[in-house]
Amino acid sequence: NRHISCEEERALLCDLELLDVQVDQISHARDHDEMLQAACEQALREGRAYVDEMRAAQIPGTCEQRTESALRSSADNLARWAEMQAGSDKYCVRARLNMSSPNPLIRDPILFYCSSTPAQIKDSRLRPASAFSVPILDHAQGVKFLLLSSHPAGRAEQYSAMCEVAGIDHTPEICLVDRMLTLSGAPLDARLLRRVISGGLAQGCDDSRIPTVRGLLRQGMVVKSLRVIALLSSGLDQQVAERARGQKGAGISGVIEESVVWGINRRVLLEESRPCFKALECEGACRMMLR
């Protein structure tokens, strides 16, 4: 993802290690610029995309109003694409999908844009949108099964549409998962947490006052509890979800109270540290032999 810094990437890898998640491979879109630009140019040649005379920041307004661009049917796309490759930031490449779609992610999303500043590692202003680069990299690396966040709604439809724009015939099997359950009164949005840390309101990703992995672990949360909470939010473990429905504030999605989170942690700690005994009445009991 081009929207996270190298420091944030290192913090993410550290969190995965703390959660006992093994990372097999790390991919950066910046390392595949030639392949991504070739896919974009092919989409332009075959009419699946067009170059719009708008900056990336102006696109959300037109999508909200469902206004089609005057250049949507233009034939000079390759000439404007060449200007973008030379560093012009007055254009952006958009997929030719459906501006009248009820799904805002399908309303001609951006494929490539030019940033006002060069990238940190490569001196290039031309950058692909993650919605376009991720399906191409997944296909190149042979991804067959994909866990895709359901927030915002319509991500699966956008992923499939981007595969068609890129000329990918076979899409991986997609499993939609919910984002982590929203803690009441706690910021879980990555951009908001980034502003909290950069603004000096928190000392870093391991500050115990913010709900990051390391922050929660410093407060006494155990890894197994975080796994249970993650399964609850994703809906992948129905058995865990059924057990949590009896607790006030718990559920598959929505807002979860902080007391429920720590209640799960206490239950996990008790299960791991104390033996469990059951008592039976002797009257009427019988011995049973299992073979």
How much strand? Answer: 5-15%
Count the E strands.
8
Q: Count helical runs.
A: 11
User: What is the succession of H and E elements?
Assistant: HHEHHEEEHEHEEHHHHEH
Termini separation (Å)?
A: 56 Å
| Portion of residues within helices | 25-40%
Mean pLDDT over the full residue set = 81
Shape: elongated
Give a short account of the largest sheet: 4 strands, antiparallel
Tell me the structural class. Answer: alpha/beta
Residue windows where pLDDT falls under 50 for at least 5 positions: 236-253
* CA radius of gyration: 24 Å
Spatial ordering of strands, largest sheet: 1-2-3-4
Write up this protein.
By secondary structure, the chain is an alpha/beta fold. It is built from 11 helices and 8 strands. It has helices at residues 6-18, 33-45, 59-65, 77-85, 130-140, 155-165, 190-198, 213-218, 223-234, 238-244, 258-273, and strands spanning 49-52, 92-95, 110-114, 126-128, 145-149, 173-177, 182-183, 255-256. The chain has a 4-stranded antiparallel β-sheet with strand order 1-2-3-4. The longest helix has 16 residues, at 258-273. It is elongated, with a radius of gyration of 24 Å. Mean pLDDT is 81; it is low at 236-253.
